[in-house]
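Lab notebook, bench 4. Still working through the backlog of constructs that have no structural model yet. Next entry is a single chain of 477 residues. Request: give me the structure tokens for it.
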Amino acid sequence: MKWNTLLSSKRSRISSTKNTNKKYDVRSEFEKDYHRIVGSASFRRLQDKTQVFPLDKSDFIRTRLTHSLEVSSFAHSLAETIGDDILKYHMDDNFTNKTKEDIGHILQCAGLIHDIGNPPFGHFGEEAIRTWFRDNLSKIQYKDENLASYLSLQMKEDLLNFEGNAQALRLVSKLHYLVDEHGMNLTYALLNTIIKYPVSSIEVDKHSGDIRTKKMGYNYADKDVFNDIMEETGTGGLRHPLTFILEAADDIAYCSADIEDAFVKGFLTYDMILREMEKCETIIREREKDGHPSFFYPATELKEFRKRGLKNDEENPDEYAVKNFTIRVQGFLIRCASYSFTKNYKAIMEGTYKTDLFEGTFAEGIVSSLKRFAYEEVFCSKFIYKMEIAEGVMMNFLLDKFVNAILYYEDITKQTDMDKRLIKLISSNYKRAYEVASKGKDEGERLYLRLLLVTDYICGMTDSFAKRLYQDLNGIN
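Model written out:
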């Protein structure tokens, strides 16, 4: 893979004002992407979507919006550090200062939209959609036949393996119907960067040992734009090099921030975090015996921050320690990810690198430990489970109602009065996108697109809107 093609500034639709405005608009195409994103309603809705704690009223706890801003910041920092190293050590004759500048802008944008396709209620919302289709797809009747019989294997697998990552590509490339069917009309380099898993739903292989096949990256309905992106950027179904950096930025943001938020919410204490970091430090010091010196000792750092908090008469030295430790961890992880990218540069550019950037570094144990720790102590807590049970009820109700209403969308004579009312609620943008996509398609593909119309509508909801709609439709004040 070569940077001159990887950083393609092509868009699905070429602007008619591109040449006439060039004299007055000195922004690069990737800088224009940034302004398209931050001005969009889809981006604004992230302020009311769950990161970890759904419908939380605290102004400290992160939402999808604040998480995305953090990922954007970390991704840009990684681009700066990695770009400097590639130039400093003359690792690639085709990598210039302009390349470094461009990847910074692309990754900054990618951080903003990497979660833009996620449904309400965080990752649980994704699982709720998958579960609903697994439980119901084979039971739905359409014209006295099983609906699933109308769908191809990939269409069915798209629904059974629903992915927020694939929905993000769909949203920004088609559903953001502002001018036409090309969505936000972002550059292909940016679109390729957010495709974490460049495989279809029937190519998913979680046991392949290659991170690119872990999940699906695009829907059958969006294969045209996916193929155009792959061809234009020259990735040919391989992971875009910048995707590894984006994923590292995401890991840095959420594995450290989840711990901080959980501490503030009272799920974790200073002592609990210290015990976990002591385990990590033991592993690091054991590894040092093999001649691999570290520059970061998590338990020691955490204790030092607490000592400083006590010395400075901080009102809450535990909180002081945890918050400062979080910042220190983030800096350490940025350094490790940057080192890993340059160390594995050749394999990444050849498309043969199969893991994340933390594997094989001192950060590997800390990242996995923080993820596992947050999962066991927070995501598996009674509080979260209780919230997820309520969220599941809401998601199931909305899917039940809208999927059944949408089946005869094209035949008004077979719609009940309730179906007509429910269809009226669906965003006109999504219905317009359906009309464009369904032209000339056979009945099976139109049915599939109607099912996607429902998931498009639900994924566009914020947490509060989904809850309010559920309450309104059930007559709950």
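Notes after review: Strands lie at 141-142, 145-146. The first helix runs from residue 3 to 6. Flag for follow-up if needed.
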